[in-house]
Amino acid sequence: MEYLTLHNGRRMPALGLGTWDLRGQTCVETIPRALELGYRLIDTAQMYENEREVGQGLRLAGLPREEVWVTTKIFRPDTTYAKAKAAIQRSLDQLALDYIDLLLIHEPYDTAEEMYVALEEAYQAGTLRAIGISNFHEARYQTFLAGCQVVPMVNQVESHVYFLRKDLQRAMAAHGTVTQAWAPFTEGRRDLFSEPVLQEVGRRHGKTAAQVALRYLLQNGMGVVVKSSRLPRLAENFQVFDFTLTPQELQAVDQLEEGQSLFGWYP
Known about the structure:
The protein is an alpha/beta fold. The chain has helices at residues 24-37, 51-61, 81-95, 112-125, 138-145, 166-173, 196-205, 209-219, 231-238, 247-254, and strands at residues 3-5, 11-13, 15-18, 41-43, 69-74, 102-105, 131-134, 154-158, 178-182, 223-227. Helix 1 (24-37) packs parallel to helix 9 (231-238), helix 2 (51-61) packs parallel to helix 3 and helix 3 crosses helix 4. The chain is globular.
């Protein structure tokens, strides 16, 4: 496993399992499978309506609490300070955890600054070990900074070979915020697995196009959240720490950049 060091000194696993479409017993059973393969970051959210199942899966795996990084997110309608404070406790209760490693504001709400005060208080109290945001574009990130006491440690955003977000990453890195990618495979909006450039680079390393796409993000200094419930794909996605893309290969993948969101999230 590789790690990213946040500005408070905590080391976050660079690759994690996303759970946005995992539900019920499938979710419960996938968590220990992923942890057995070596995953150490599990990403959920109140929006996904599966925090309770994620917590059950963590307990089923039986690993020491400090070995697993748990991320969750709060969202609308909890867009006031008081509601955000209650939402944090709700996540702790649903996950059945004493603390959450990283809690994010899921979207760039107009009242995100007010919500963030609740996160800052919980961070100071130790029930949140790191705090941040999600889906904030650069302009909204910059305005958000003006209202923060604690600089967001992470901004989780759409990022993949067609929309890497290098400018956003550089702007945030200047303030100490780490970029974490969701939709590294574009959620099917591009046939990334058949992308010729990725396939050719993969052949040189004995890797798949998917593995090259993940390695590209990791070598660009990003955290990555990738989802699957199938054991072979879970294993494939995790086998990205035993090879390195050359500068020439990185440049070849750079040429896939399209410069726009595939989800309509960002201006």
